[in-house]
Structures are given as structure tokens and as C-alpha cells.
Amino acid sequence: MIRVRPPTVLLAAALCLFVMASANASIMGEELSNNEEMLTRGGAGDGSSRLLQRRRKQIHQRRLQDIELNGHSQTLCRSIIAVGGMRILHEAQDLAPLDDDDEYTNIDSNGDVLLSYNEIQDEIVETDEEFVCEIDDETTVPIQGTEEQMSELRALLNRGYFVSYEDTLNVAPIGNAVGESSLVGKLEAGASTEVVSLSPGPIKVIKSNANNNGRRLQGRSKYEGVKKALVIRVTDRKGKQPNEKAPFLSDKFFGTYGDKVTLASGYKACTFGKITFTNNYGNAIDTKKLTAPGVLDVTINGALDALTQSQMRGEVISAASSKLGVELSETFDHVLIVIEKCYRSGGESCSWAAYAYVNHWLSVYQQQNYKFPGVTMHEVGHNLNLAHSGGKDGRTYTDHTCIMGNPLWQDDVGAMCFNPVKNYQVAKAGNSWYESRHIVSFNSGTTIRKSWRGKLIGVAEYNNNPHNHAISVKLETGKESDWFFGFNRATGANADVVMGGDQVTIYQVYAGDGFSYSHSNLKANINQGQRVKITDWRGSGYALFIKVHEINTHSSPGYADVEITFDGEAIPNPTPSPTPNPTPNPTSNPTPNPTPNPT
What is the structure's pLDDT at 429? Predict the structure, then answer.
């Protein structure tokens, strides 16, 4: 049950904090600036670690005093962060690809694969993100709300109206943590024990400002460059730790000792070297404190079976920052935490294999799941602001054509990239893996007699494209939920794809026109000679067709020759019921001639 303080109490507490903030802002700002300067000069020694702890304490205090009065609530969160997870799979159906002729594929009498524009366009997609409140760059606490509020927040996220790690919301702390002393005190004690709730009523998004988010997003919103990644191997006070030692983790994430199938190799292959994950940090830290290249061992004071996920993250980040003498968020582009196991502390679910903060730098892995490059690539994809992709059955993890669907759960298999929806998002972001000139947008409008025909290549052969063929085609709908298709070439970086290999695959994005974080769904995968028919396209009463004329995997590069036509096959009018023949007027019996009376 969510407890909400009366408006008068919230307002009084907010005014009290506002007065305190006004009185202390200049002094605290000056002291913080001085500390930042000293920290810069101090390097990574023990003195800088103590100074770092003092700085973090002041940041906590300043964040709680930097409130915004809005009605009767307080904006305590610097930002709201979405959390995308990968659940542990138990059913064989979760891992098995859907057959081409399964129950989710409807074939008409002409052999066309039937899809309904109206049915899908009006579909409500329920996604599964959770959310946390960011107090500062390295401290987050969980967010609670009613079912309606959480559903609304997920919809806002997937429609692009709310951006994870940029925008914030009005929240009200639960319990007695309205004032500065209680919340800051618990954070200073090293345990993130608080939970905040969404303010009553509809969600109101407070958009970000450049000063607050300019530094943090610089470098992370771009889909290219050298990314400094740190893996943190965690041991708790009871000695619980991952089975493998730091050198194994270094090899599995970076290929340090010769592993060929890793997080680093997967992204290098899919992006053609546009993203490189490195464990070379230059002079940013004292590398002698690392246990293996790119891997830091830390021991936390708490026990994993007694800590919530929020508490665990807080202790791990604090221990790592103190050991290295740096702020993790300012030093590394990605931080990957590996723990022995998740326990159901505080009633939390442990059904996840891994999870990551969306549009952020943090991800967490339990048990052996960090060994699977498909899982680590999936979670870092969330860091890169990419959403999940579901399958034809509507479930979240059954798009086996994309690493943001259900990835490969093997140590030595990981050659799988992203679907056309994600490729479109990346290409349109600029400074990315693919150039936007290799994206085609087809806008039929609602007037018939429009068409397009061209060759598509797979992303795995993007570096062999002398004729500038497209890698993704977008079908404009005039709404937010556009359609996309591409050629899912099963070779090179995408050789291990387990569904739709060397076929044309068709998708729809939930919202956002494909430009931003949004859930996508696989709708069809078709072979040479097949045709997809989308009925009542854009409510026009006419069908749109996607025909695969040829798939050639012997040429270099391989290609699919595809044609789109919106040319006038109307939805047939229903046959009217036959009109019965009119009932004739009844014929009167003839009047007989009178019989004469006998003489």
C-alpha cells in the first residue's frame, strides 16, 4: 500500500527545505567547487578517496535542497531512469524460434501472408520496464506507483515523451523521509534504503535542461567511439562471489587472453569498428588497483542475501569509487557489475538474468549470465537507449532476429546484430554505425498507385555496399507506430541469428516513429516469391503489398530484391443478402357462374 503525506505536510517540508537551500547554497557551492578542484589535483590516492566521500555527502545534501515546488510535491530526483531487464528463461518455447507457418502466421487463399493494419495499429503494448530515482550520478532508489501510473510511465517512455536519465517527475518519499536529514542520513550510512513514490494523479514529465544533463549525455548518446568499460567483480561479507576469477572475466568481456566471442568483439563486428570497448584507461585511474585488465574486485560490507538490489548497487558503487578514488560516472562510459546471485531480499523478484539502466552507464549480471555475449550485448544495448523487441506472438523476448529480443544463451556463440527498427534509430541519431543515406522511407499517403522497388543488403555486409543499397526500409503510417523491414542476412557478424536468417523480416515499432527508445515487434519473415498483404493500409480501404522477387545469397554482397505496391486492391464490399422475390398479390378465386334454378 502506498502512503502519501497530506498536502499541508509536504508543502511545509518543501518550504522549510527551500529556506535552508537559499541560506546555504552559496556556501555549499563554493565548498563543493573547492573540493572538486582539490580532487582533480589529488589523483587516485587514499586522501582523494576520503575527499571523494566528503564530496558525495555534500552532493546528497545539495540534491535534497535543490527542490522545485510544484503544487504540493517535491522534485527530489535529478532524473528518472528506466531499467530494462533480461529475465531468466525457463520454458523451451522461450528459446525455440517460431516456425514460419505457425499459428501466428495467417496465409490467405492466394498464398499471401496477411497482416491487419487496423488490428496492429490500435494494439496496446504493455512493456516491462521498472524505474529508479537518481539522487546523484551514482545513487539511485526505486520508484513505486499505482498500476495505472506505472503503465502510463512505460507508455510515455516508449512514445518518446519521457527520456530516461534526462527527464524527471514529481515524486513523494515514502515513510518519514520527507526531510533532508532522514534521507541524506541513510544515504550517508552507505545503504540506499529509501523508496520514493510517484505523486498522486497523472504523470507530469519535467523536461531536462542542458546544464543538468549536458555532461552526462556527451559521449553516451553517440553510437560511436572508444568506450571505457569497467567490470566490477563483487564479494560480499560472507564471501559470496562469482565462481570465476578476474582474469576469466577480463577475457570474457574484452578478449584479453584470446577469447574470440565477447562483448567487445560483438559490438566491433556489428558496428564495423565504430564502437570499441576498451580496458585501457590511460592515466584516469591507478591500474595497479585492478585485479585484471578492466576488472576491479571489491568487497562490500553487506550480505547479498540481506540486501535489496538498490542497497547492493549503492554499496558496490561506493566501494569501487573509494578504491579507485574517482567518480565512476565521470571516468567510465560503461560499468558492468557481476554478482554471485540475486536473493529475494525485501520480497524482490530474482527472475532476471541481467538488467541495465536505459540511456545510462550501468548494468548488472547474476550467476553465469555475464558469460553469454548475447546477454551482455543486449544489456549494453539498453545503455545505448535501445528497447526490447518482441515476436509475432506479442511476447517481449520472442524476436529471435535481433539481439534486443531473445539473445543467444551460449558462451561461444554471439554473432547476432540488430533489427531494422534499431538500425533506423541508430542511423538517424547521427555519428553512428550506419549512414542515413542507407535508409529508405516510403510514404504512400492514402492515395493509391504508389510503389517502390529496390535491393536490400544485410547489416553484416554493410562494409561491402558499392551500390549504396538500403539496410532498412521504413513504411510511414502518418502515426507514431511505423513499419519497417530489412534483409536479415545470416553471415559474418549476424551468422548466428536463429530466426529469419536470409529472409526479409517485417516489424512495427510501438511509437516514436523509430527515432527514439521504443518497443518493436516482429510481424512476419518471408522468403523469395512470397508476398505480405497489409489490409486497409492507413485506413484507406486498400491493401499495401510487400513482395520479395529474389533473394540472392551467392553474390557479394547478398541481397533481397523487394517491391512495395499500394495500387488499389480494395477491401471487398460485403455481399448483400439476396433480395427475396416479391410476394405476388393473392389471386382471388374466380366467381362461379350461377347455377340456374331447375325449371
Answer: 87
CA distance 98 to 284: 48
Cα 332 to the center of its chain, rounded Å: 21
Residue at grid coordinates 546484430: 417
The H or E element containing residue 32 is helix 7-42
Reading the block at residue 466, the C-alpha cell is 558499392
> How far is C-alpha 48 from the geometric centre of its chain's CA atoms?
36
Here the contacts of 214-218 (C-beta below 8 Å, separation 24 or greater) are: 216/137, 216/165, 216/329, 217/165, 217/166, 217/359
Helices (H), 333-415: 373-383
Q: What CA–CA distances, in Å, run from 564 to 29, 190, 518, 549, 552?
A: 60, 59, 25, 11, 19
Q: Are 321 and 327 in contact (CB under 8 A)?
A: yes
Query: Which of 400, 575, 374 shows the shortest CA–CA distance to 501?
Result: 400
Ranges of the chain with pLDDT below 50: 1-45, 59-73, 90-95, 97-101, 175-185, 187-193, 210-215, 217-220, 573, 598-599
Cα 566–435–356 angle (5° rounding)? 100
CA distance 152 to 167: 15
CB neighbourhood size of 419 (10 A): 28
At residue 142's C-alpha, the angle toward residues 140 and 144, to 5°, is 150
- The DSSP bridge pattern shows strands 362-366 and 334-339 to be parallel
Quote the crossing angle between the two packed helices 263-270 and 373-383, to the nearest 10°. 60
Alpha carbon 270 to its chain centroid, in Å, reads 18
Q: What pLDDT, on the 0 to 100 scale, is given for residue 317?
A: 97
- Interhelix angle 246-254/263-270, rounded to 10 degrees, is 10
Q: How far apart are the first and last CA of the chain?
A: 111
Any bridge partners for residue 299, and if so which? 235
Return the C-alpha torsion angle 210, 212, 213, 216, nearest 10: 140
- What letter represents residue 23's amino acid? A
| 221 and 431 Cβ atoms separated by less than 8 Å | no
Helix intervals (H) in 418-548: 420-429
pTM: 0.82
Asked whether the beta carbons of 470 and 439 are under 8 A apart, the reply is: yes
What gap in Å lies between CA 7 and CA 480, rounded to an integer?
A: 37
Instruction: Give dist(CA 481, CA 508) in Å, integer.
Output: 7
